[in-house]
Automatic annotation (TrEMBL):
It comes from the Bacteria. SUPFAM superfamilies: Homeodomain-like (SSF46689), P-loop containing nucleoside triphosphate hydrolases (SSF52540), PYP-like sensor domain (PAS domain) (SSF55785). GO terms for biological process: regulation of DNA-templated transcription. Keywords: Aromatic hydrocarbons catabolism, ATP-binding, Nucleotide-binding. Gene3D superfamilies: 1.10.8.60, Homeodomain-like, P-loop containing nucleotide triphosphate hydrolases, PAS domain. NCBIfam families: sensory_box (TIGR00229). This is HTH-type transcriptional regulatory protein TyrR. GO terms for molecular function: ATP binding; DNA binding. It comes from Thermoflavimicrobium dichotomicum. Residues 1-54 form the PAS domain. It holds the Pfam family Sigma54_activat.
Amino acid sequence: MNQLFEFIFQSSYDGIYVADKDGNGLMVNEAYTRITGVKPEELLNKNIRDLVNEGIISESVTLMVLDKKRTHTIIQRVKEKEVLVTGNPVFDENGEILYVVTNVRDISELNQLKLELQKTKALSNQYLYEIEEFKKKESVQMMMDGVVAHSKEIMDVIHLAQKVARVDSTVLIHGESGVGKEVIVNLIHKYSDRAQAPLIKVNCAAIPQHLLESELFGYEKGAFTGADSRGKPGLFEQADGGTIFLDEIGDMPLDLQAKLLRVLQEFEIRRVGGRKNIKIDVRVISATHKNLEMMVQNGQFRQDLFYRLNIVPIKIPPLRERKADIAPLAYYFLNKMNKRYGFNRRFHPEVIYMMEHYDWPGNIREMENLIERLVVTVDHEEIQVSDLPFSLLNQDVRKPISLKSMVEEFERKIIRDYLAKYKTTRKTAKILGISQSALVKKMHRIGLK
């Protein structure tokens, strides 16, 4: 019988600790050590009061049972680990306590799950709040003349574009394909004194090189075989009084670069086959995704032309370097496509998280095309992570990431954005509903300075 009792005692998954009527440890099973990390020799033949004084346990349910003479359950800390303990009295025939049997259960995992659930709920609520805020702000953001402006990086670009719009200096816009160079050109033209005159856009890479000169400068009648018998004004003449945008200027052939340089110096053009110069009044904006300085060094682009074009350089950062614009852009394109096709699609919050952790090699153009594809192809109202294409799902964002890291990253984003808006920790803390000291501590913890 004793062997059976010992087997049952040691087989229990929960920890068991037995003390006598004076609080001295008599028995403890292996599960108690597994759960709490406290070894048997630290408990046996020692009084429970000493264990409390030594800090091994935070408080004693055994002493509560001895005092009240009834069952007690408390949450106890044993060597910094939180456990649920229940003390049960064992009485003799006279109703006096002989022993107290304490059952110990590990609740740290349960607490962790509870905490993670609370954080997940808070994160989802914050995403839903941001969604509503983005919807409210959309009309303000988008009325920046077609520019979704949320990040500091793109706001700096807009500020510079509005500043140079008031003068006629040549502007060279640098940026990867799809970052929105043409949108900035539209902005500059709209805020300029030439806004009521034409804005002519030319993609130098899309026109065959042997036709580019006649397209830009026009031609006289009979200038070449197949030419219009009346001649034709070029795009520079058509832009007279306004603005001409030379996109992909890095693809312009060297011989034509020399003629463009003359236009910028003399503000006059000569048609192909013509004998007289024609005065023009044109503001020139150019753009490229190429490294023109490197092309100059390699003899592929004229240095003098580069200096003429690059009087005011504007660098548009790629989408991966301005994460704060991703969510506003996504909701803008979603609303745009919903209106275009008569749908009422919406994003699951995790879709935005995935988008914010994708590199977007095709930049804004890639995002717009992706969202249009999702809107017209999914069979349900809410666009899910599973609807995203493999190329996006296959990024590093799919690597395991702890909920703690996700929450900290989200906190960093919110605090960084609010600090940029309200400038001081005092104002930011007030908006966030916490004390300034709590905000500073949190910033230190999540690596914000």
